[in-house]
Amino acid sequence: MCGRFAQAIPLGKLNMTGLFDEVDSDYIESFNVAPSHHAAVVSMNEGRRLLSMKKWGLVPSWSKDDKSGSRLINARGETLKEKPSFRNAFRKRRCIIPASGFYEWHTEAGVKKPFFIRMSGDGGTEPMFIAGLHESWIKPDGEVLETFTIITTDACEKLKVIHDRMPVIILPENTDRWLDDSRSPGEIERLIKPVDDDKIEFYHVSAFVNSPKNNSLKCMERI
């Protein structure tokens, strides 16, 4: 699974990727995004790619309440077409979560050690494009809650020493295809796979990142 990530990319640098056409809300950088936090997500809106803040933890539009969000932070790529919570969003509401990278914990000698996983290009500063799904849920008072989930797949060989799952990473040349809701499910499914080993790198970080309350560069620093 993926339970924590960093989105500490300056908006100017993120804009240079060409991932979105416009920004809909205030963009806030974070070194330690946890479930229930808000993060910037790119989704289609009337034919344009929109960068907007959404809450991490999917609440399907048909839900009676928003309690499902705490359980639906990840969606297994292998079962997207089968699960009622994900299948409609998979067809029509795919999104991309730009990230600096994500965190994963591995237990060694009874101690959970955190690692930071990032793209290997551009000296480790290349943005990572994580595949996701998004939904809009209307609260009883009429307010709209925008949420998202991260799609996961089997870990690539390099990461299996840490964990057996990883987020699906969409390479820059495939972002338009992933966001295009006119594409066939078969074409989209081919993008749900582990990233090649040479595209990523990882290193050990301190236990400072363990607390979601901590949000500074120290979360990502190599030790």
Terminal CA distance = 24 Å
- Overall pLDDT level: 95
Number of helices: 4
Radius of gyration: 17 Å
Task: Provide a descriptive summary of the structure in words.
This protein is mainly β and 223 residues long. Helix content is 9%, strand content 37%. It contains four helices and 13 strands. A hairpin with a 2-residue loop joins strand 4 and strand 5. It starts with a strand and ends in a 19-residue tail after the last strand.
Give the arrangement of secondary structure elements.
Blueprint: E1 5-7, H1 11-15, E2 22-23, E3 30-33, E4 38-45, E5 48-56, E6 74-76, H2 87-92, E7 94-99, E8 101-108, E9 111-119, E10 128-138, E11 144-154, E12 165-167, H3 175-179, H4 185-189, E13 200-204
Parallel strand pairs: 2-5, 5-11, 6-11
Antiparallel strand pairs: 1-3, 1-8, 4-5, 7-10, 8-9, 9-13, 10-11, 11-12
